[in-house]
Predict the structure.
Amino acid sequence: MSTVLQNLVNQPYQHGFVTDIESDVAPKGLGEDTIRLISAKKKEPGWLLEFRLKAFRQWLTMQEPAWPNVHYPKIDFQAISYYSAPRAKKKLASIDEVDPELLRTFEKLGVPMNERASLAGVAVDVIFDSVSVATTYKAKLAEVGIIFCSISEAVHEHPELVRRYLGTVVPAGDNYYAALNSAVFTDGSFCFIPKGVKCPMDLSTYFRINTQESGQFERTLIVAEQGASVSYLEGCTAPKFDTNQLHAAVVELVALDNADIKYSTVQNWYAGDENGVGGIYNFVTKRGLCKGVNSRISWTQVETGSAITWKYPSCILRGENSVGEFYSVALTNHHQQADTGTKMVHIGRNTRSTIVSKGISAGQSSNSYRGLVRIAPTAAGARNYSKCDSMLIGERCSANTFPYIQVGNQSAQVEHEASTSKIGEDQLFYFAQRGIGAEEAVSMIINGFCKDVFQQLPMEFAVEATKLLGLKLEGSVG
Amino acid sequence: MIYQDSTTVLEVRGLRASVNGIEILKGIDLTVRTGEVHAIMGPNGSGKSTFAKVLAGHPAYAVTAGTVSLEGRNLLELAPEARARAGVFLGFQYPIEIPGVANSQFLRLAYNTVQAQRGSDELDPLEFDDFVREKMKLLEMNPDFLDRSVNEGFSGGEKKRNEILQMALLEPRLGILDETDSGLDIDALRVVAGGVNQLAGKDNATVLVTHYQRLLNYIVPDYVHVMDGGRIIKTGGSELALELESRGYDWVSAEYKNAARATA
Amino acid sequence: MNTATGSGYLESLLREQPALPASPLAWLNRLRANAVERVGALTVPSARDEDWRFTDISPLTKMPFQPVTRAAKLEAAAIERFTLPEAGARLAFVDGVFAPELSYNRTAVTVANLATGAGRHAALLEPHLGRHAGFADNVFAALNTAFLHDGALIVVPRDVAVAGPLHLLFIATQPEAASYPRCLVAAQAGSAVTVIEDFVALQEAAYFTNAVSEIVLSDNASVSHVRVQRDSGAAFHIANCAVSLAHASRYRSVSVALGGRISRYNLNVLQAAEGAQCAIDGLALITGRQLADSHTCIDHAWPNGVSRQLHKCIVDGSAHAVFNGKILVRPGAQRTDSSQSSRNLLLTGKARVDTKPQLEIFADDVKCAHGATVGQLDAEEVFYLRSRGLSDAAARNLLTYAFGAEIIDRIPVASLKQRLESIVLAQTNH
């Protein structure tokens, strides 16, 4: 591999610092006591504690999944702390009272916590280790009836809503990590867009893991009522540690009739060093339910971080004419492993789904697309189009494609295509012969390769995503 | 065309080059002056495509001896993109496909890079669009080309037209066309050759690398060189190409060997 | 295969194994013994095994099957309709037992029964027989190997091109019979041959065919392999075929699945040297409650390999088609050029298909593409034919037929092609 390519894919991790802040960390270990402790710390109602305990008991009977194409030593769940929060001096009245050390941390990460300073007018919920530390623009959103707050707050302020939807898309016992999350989740974001409201700004959550021995188990729930729409963004970073941290999140989306939810992620958890030491285990369950007619859920993800990614943002297309979309760029380098993709489950009539997946593997990494398209017998007229492309940089990495296509309705149409390409000397020489330097050539090739996905990202995120891939942009993306 | 007041564009002396330790070029001498069209012919494996790639700086080839200068400037010390900016254009035998990158985007970037090098104005997308469409008429190209990915899914003829279009945009001092006629039907050959003829002028020079004589029915060279075994073994005028067409290459090789034996 | 189901069933299948006559070749007896041992260690696969996720073979385990002890004597007339005039040789097996009276060999190459020909070709057989179709983790290959006795042995010497196709005809005549067809083809350097494996039934009975084939191509050899499974609609058919390709060899296969209550075909092609090429095509045309499952794996282990694959399923009635096609490009297998396509047509509301084309790539300088479609006939094409005066039904029948005929057309034996075309035509005529 040419040195230009090497340098380009080997950019140092820029978010690897640790914030020195006094934290309230629960002792390591997992048992019913831990769960009662978390629940007590959060002063939760009894039904939620029951939800957690039930999930935990189920988790105890479950097996860690072995089918993903990823390899890692067995996780010792007793060596993890399940609660870590920056110690607050007193209850906060406004953002201005947030610990300045935290403000500086997020400033450094480029996350605006100050409403006045924020450029794009994006409302942000900021999660530091286990807890939400601040949510911006809450008041402004409340004017149109939108609830945007941490899920802990929602449990207290809007218990009936949380109770109505929590665990309805991803049941507590859905899979090993979803069960674990259901038992020990600490915080996350909640947003509720009432009937007929188009959310006036993008909503965003920024996740930061800071403590070395804590796991992060956030839970996000987004509900868009009839005719509502929202665009939600999620970003994540973590310090460099030479041990692995577990991140097992659950995200549930519910779209009622004619509602529209767009969920974008730029995932840049610490990936470990060039020898594969350290990094986040990113085992995440994300699922959206298109419950109502004509509803739409769209997932866009740019996955560049984590030592291991195991993630399949999915759509259950139950409402007639509902639409599911999945756009993904996954870049793996060094010893990173990614097994990611989506599930599109067509249940309603005339449901449609689109899958566009772009995998880029470099170094000795392994990058797998795994996707399921299931057309139930009830889904007359269903349509799916999938396109999964892989790009290999160097000869020590691997790219795999595992599409599962299950069709039980005659009138359905499903189309899947996949291809591989590479950036090699010949391509770079062709550019060079036309006067274009290697760095620009690589950036152009990768941008061209990822174009279909970048187009789906909101503008600010598209910029961040391209920067993340180490690219200079020619023309406009977004 | 040979002009009295021409200047030297390319000067190659004693050029030797190898790939993976195997020597392919074994001492090449060639002088190309402004206004001239040179044809380099030879059997398969004679080293003529290697010669073209070495001039453009392909990283797979190592130059082990000799000098190459472009208008007095040492070409061998320049990176491939610097050679391109200095005015060397290589028309590829197998143009590379670049999925996802729009042809218009690629052409404009290449054009603006070379323009910037020459201290000329860069064109914004709209200006460039007008400019490129004019050039495309020259090659009877469908404007759809601009929106498609670079060379992806192009037919052989379309790829070659795209190469000549790039040459038309970049206005090189030295255009080297490697087997431009391969894979072309007769109509495409006529169009491509017409483009090359229109681009060839008093101030630039063209080197055609070709196995067959048929391209030379359309582009009449001033000099024909026969390459074999990594050397130029015979040089003549355009009539030499016709002789090669009727008699093949063997007699030239035999003649060269005899001459070599005589001098030994 | 790690479930506990049906180990008693496997024992019952092995009941007659000890009665098998011993081979004069010690290694062959050892091979059988090893296979018996593996059967003992393995279990019948269930839906929990990834490789059997969509194919429930439990109906098989509910029925008793034993090898026939006395082969039925068939008159030549009984198999008249299966004869292929072009064939240079035919080996016929009745319920798995070699039938010399129905067999002939007009070619100069070895086309013989394994049980009797093994001795003469022992040196050639030993490195191949049971070595390519591994049975360590495959209970059906192990069962077949445990019963290894009669079978087809084809040896094509260096640089010999066999003129006519070689016809291996496996005839099922009895209910509850278990047969273990076995085939070894050794195509030596530079040779060329066409081999037809043809599975037919004389009556609509429930029987169990469990076949294993091994096809070994030496440098520059060329093998065309046609496989026609037209078993009874009540039969169970499970087959494993392993192909090994040496330098610059070419393997071409067309497999057609028409019969069977449940059928499963595993085809593994290993490109074991540089520059090998393979083209493997398949068609499943099924109806009623049939299930046809095809699992293929093309293993590009060396550089400059080429593979092409087109697999089609036409699913009528309440039938269920399964396709799993894996393309593996191993580290260092640079300049591999592979393309794979799975095309599926569902004709009724109850038909079902599960398809999984799959790429696993460990080298960067490769060209790999795959695609899968599931759908109906192209509305534009139907319209085009109707605009030329065909009725809607006639247009659909014609297009459905054409969908399947694309695969049948690739069979290089005219008489067989013709017969299969008329079967497809009849089956697609609604």
About this structure: Chain B touches chain A through 33 residues (CB under 8 Å). The longest helix of chain B spans residues 103-117. The longest strand of chain B covers residues 8-19.
